Amino acid sequence: MSKPSLPQGTRDFGATVVRKRNFIFNTIRSVFELYGFQPLETPAMENMETLMGKYGEEGDKLIFKILNNGLDNQDKLEKTKAGFDKIMEGKNSTAITEKALRYDLTIPFARYVAMNHGQLTFPFKRYQVQPVWRADRPQRGRYREFYQCDADVVGSKSLINEVELTNIYSTVFSKLNIPVEIHLNNRKVLAALAEVCGGTDKLVDITIAIDKLDKIGIDKVKEELIQRGLTETQVNQIAAYLNISGSNTERLQQVNALVGNTENGRKGVEELQFIVDYIAAQPGVQPNIVLDFTLARGLNYYTGTIYEIKALNVQMGSIGGGGRYDDLTGLFGVPNLPGVGISFGVDRIYDVMEELQLFPEEVQTGTQVLFFNLGEAESKKAFELMQQLRSNGIRCELFHEQTKFDKQFKYAEKKNIPYAIILGSTELQQQTCVVRNLVSGEQTTIQQTELLQQQF
Amino acid sequence: MSKPSLPQGTRDFGATVVRKRNFIFNTIRSVFELYGFQPLETPAMENMETLMGKYGEEGDKLIFKILNNGLDNQDKLEKTKAGFDKIMEGKNSTAITEKALRYDLTIPFARYVAMNHGQLTFPFKRYQVQPVWRADRPQRGRYREFYQCDADVVGSKSLINEVELTNIYSTVFSKLNIPVEIHLNNRKVLAALAEVCGGTDKLVDITIAIDKLDKIGIDKVKEELIQRGLTETQVNQIAAYLNISGSNTERLQQVNALVGNTENGRKGVEELQFIVDYIAAQPGVQPNIVLDFTLARGLNYYTGTIYEIKALNVQMGSIGGGGRYDDLTGLFGVPNLPGVGISFGVDRIYDVMEELQLFPEEVQTGTQVLFFNLGEAESKKAFELMQQLRSNGIRCELFHEQTKFDKQFKYAEKKNIPYAIILGSTELQQQTCVVRNLVSGEQTTIQQTELLQQQF
To answer: What DSSP state is assigned to residue A300?
Structure first.
């Protein structure tokens, strides 16, 4: 018998971690609901054809495939062998694997919308909080099973959706007490920049170089742009673009001066202006928006607004991101469904909250009261009192057997239980009990009838 | 492009269903917490050696195995081919699959306890609510992905645990408003019956026949027992056992008369007596316990108390079950950890609640208020009011674009939104808004400043 172990890159979550993670999940879920988003859950397994070819060649390799069942069925063996031979030749084959584990929440969402679009109410606002699986090489902070936490609106081009999603980010992080900057840009502005400097075919080169600004600095970015075939004039224009600074209003003016003479540039600036103005007019605490024209969000399917969230006071990559896209479900035969969505990086949010010690104390408390077990008659009375506390919603336990004080105290301590109720023969006789605060060490003797009025 | 579809036996859960399911899950979780149980989450994937051989030969076949990644890596292909050849010969091979999807929550729990027993506090009380996957042939009410919902205490022989678990069942179903009978038996009583009638080697035969009583009736059970080699005298003793009836106290007396003269019988009756007495002494509503000596719970690893839950007023198999076992982690090299656990059948509980119409109305409400969009200035004011309501916790939406009344009403209706707030040019001017109850059709015009006092 070998020692049991976990698959590489996967984790068990014990009570404390589950409670803290649920605090994050529940905060995010409740804000999604506050903004009218509805929950969706899709199965862990999808058909291979739903997933393959959607994440690029590298992505395809990282999808966990499920071996068809019944490979031990002699009838199927030969078919399966043929399928395996196809895999040997570098081709996928459904004879050996028809299903795979979900790689993200977007494709299953698109598949769901495509399958059910006749029944859905548009704009369709859904949120989804479920694990995904990727055969990435495990490393610090990267797991093979991890949760994604997405909200999307599809079937609407209205920029009010962008305003709403900005507010969702702001509300969630304010509820979690994490100070953040909400970085906004618009893909149309980047496209306009490419138009202005070097032509639209240079968009990818420009985006890749810009994306590195944080890491390598402006001089190296310039070098790279030259290497990628841009002229010095063009590089200087891009440098001016990257140099945009000041308040959001000032930034919009500067970017408008650089790219506002193109159709894309004008529209991109207009859209950002709408979002910024709409939010500035709303009551209450203002979201901390930063118009960040260096923001690119990789080379994916975004076509309008893009988002990225940076936590302040802590060294950490982005803890959220998203953007607008023109077509969610075209790949599944349902065209013309534009939308916009955001995502929360729960593992990183967890790390930020641990580092800044932001988890509230009460999240970490399971059982609130331990009743000591000091004999048969005593424990029966304790049990009776416990049932009364429970019916008032207090989380209680009775120690499972009569044993030394010491052992019962240790149990309470290890389980982080804040109160003990001690009921020995004297207390039984006098119809009292001792309530001990295990954090402060204070204790008082009260009448058993007073217990329900006690604060825990 | 083929029409997208779901893998056989899997389901998407839309908003209404997710909300109802969460109502069940949250009720169960909160009661588990009330009783001092702590959450645990384990990964979807386990190593093959953790799962294989734990569920019998049939079980092994129903485990979903995950194809190793990198089968397209030429270096690995030959190894993989060798592994596939082993599968062709009917042997499992880790060269092709090292990981598999969890088949239940008990084995991952045992694996977790075995890996971490040095750090855990015993008795260890954990609950776990996660999906499991089985390659069963899909049919009505049987899925390939479904949730299990378990609570176990390990490291304690105390029968107080049995009392607690009985109360958990009773509390959960009372909170869900499902009338149930909690059927209790004890494996030691069944063992004693076998001892008394035909010897311990007949335990399996007797159990299998008894298990069918509900379906085939007493006469057919007798026939089967004869076929299985029991004498008429023995069969008559078993028939007397199956005929036990009356109050729980009367039943205990009758069973004691039949099997109480064996060590097993005496202990089994004593244990049941303890549970029944302990519960009878507790305050509040009494759990509806039925001592059911025909209850067997298949041929699994239970050794003491066994539970099964029957919903009343509805035709449905058991909606929960569990029992005591002597050894959770022996298979993983950590012996002597006895425990007791229960499980809730969430899919069936859902069906019962649908049939008896037990889901509370409010569970089915997502967005509470829809603000109509009747123009640019109007919608900006509506947006402002909406943000105020949201900061009071009211779930709201603003319709995403200015359009006909009709369309906005239809959106509210389809999303089951109970209130609309209508703010046109008149209301904008007069600083009022119209609050319309979309269920009753009633509407009132109020000052915008009064909106926060409104009940939704």
So the answer is: S
Supply the DSSP symbol for A54: S
What integer pLDDT is reported at residue A449 of this predicted model? 96
Domain ranges of chain A: 15-43+102-355, 366-453
Is the Cβ pair B398, A160 closer than 8 Å? yes
Distances, alpha carbon B327 to alpha carbons B157, B340, B404, in Å: 11, 10, 67
DSSP B98-162: -EEE-S-SHHHHHHHHHHHTTT--SSEEEEEEEEEE--PPPBTTB-SEEEEEEEEEES---THHH
Tell me whether residue A169 is annotated as binding: no
Q: B172: closest CA among B37, B12, B15, B361? A: B37
Q: Which residue has the higher pLDDT, A78 or B238?
A: B238
State how far the Cα of A184 lies from the Cα of A271, in Å rounded to an integer.
Answer: 11
Q: Tell me, yes or no, if A118 comes closer than 8 A to chain B by beta carbon.
A: no
The three-state secondary structure class of B45 is: strand
Residues 350-389 of A with CB under 8 A from B: 366-367, 379-380, 383-384, 387-388
Are B43 and A366 in contact (CB < 8 Å)?
Answer: no
Task: Mark yes or no for CB contact B36/A156 under 8 Å.
Answer: no
- Mark yes or no for CB contact A22/B39 under 8 Å: yes
Judge if ipTM > 0.85: yes
Point out the residue among A12, A380, A390 whose CB comes nearest to the CB of B112.
A12
The answer to whether B422 and B373 have CB atoms below 8 angstroms apart is no
DSSP 3-state of B210: helix
Q: Please tell me the distance from the alpha carbon of residue B158 to that of residue B340, in angstroms, as a whole number.
A: 10
Query: Chain A neighbours among B 280-319 (CB < 8 Å)?
Result: 281-284
Judging contacts by C-beta atoms under 8 Å, the chain B residues touching residue A39 are 13, 15, 18-19, 22
Beta bridge partners of A133: A145
CB contact (8 A) between residue B46 and residue A7: yes
pTM over 0.90: yes
Angle at B86 between CA B135 and CA A92, to 5 degrees: 60
The residue assigned the tokens 């979550």 is A13
Evaluate whether the domain defined by A15-43+102-355 bears CATH number 3.30.930.10.
Answer: yes
Hey, are the CB atoms on A7 and B101 less than 8 Å from each other?
no
Confidence of residue A214 (pLDDT cuts 50, 70, 90): confident
Contact partners, residue B329, CB within 8 Å, separation at least 6:
B110, B113, B114, B117, B154, B335, B337
Residue of A282, A267, A9 lying closest to A138 (CA atoms): A9
For chain A, say whether B215 makes contact (Cβ under 8 Å).
Answer: no
- List the 124-163 stretch of A: residues with Cβ below 8 A of B: 125-126, 131, 133, 135, 144-145, 153, 156, 158, 160-161, 163
Contact check, Cβ <8 Å, A13/B379: no
**B77 interface with A at CB cutoff 8 Å:** yes
CA A27 and chain centroid, separation: 11
Q: In which band, very low, low, confident or very high, does the pLDDT at B2 lie, cut at 50, 70 and 90?
A: low
Query: Is CATH 3.40.50.800 the right assignment for the domain spanning B366-453?
Result: yes
Chain A residue with Cα closest to B156 = A400
Which residue in A33, A40, A394 is closest to B395 by CB distance? A33
pLDDT at position A199 is 76
pLDDT tens profile B62-107: 999 999 887 666 666 677 777 777 766 666 677 788 999 999 999 9
Is pLDDT of B364 > 80?
A: yes
- Are residues B39 and A15, on separate chains, in Cβ contact within 8 Å? yes
* B398 chain-A contacts, CB cut-off 8 A: 160
Rounded distance, CA B454 to CA B258, Å?
Answer: 67
Q: In angstroms, how far is the first alpha carbon of chain B from the final one?
A: 46
Distance, in Å, from the CA atom of B305 to the CA atom of A397, rounded to the nearest integer, reads 21
Residue with tokens 């607004």: A305
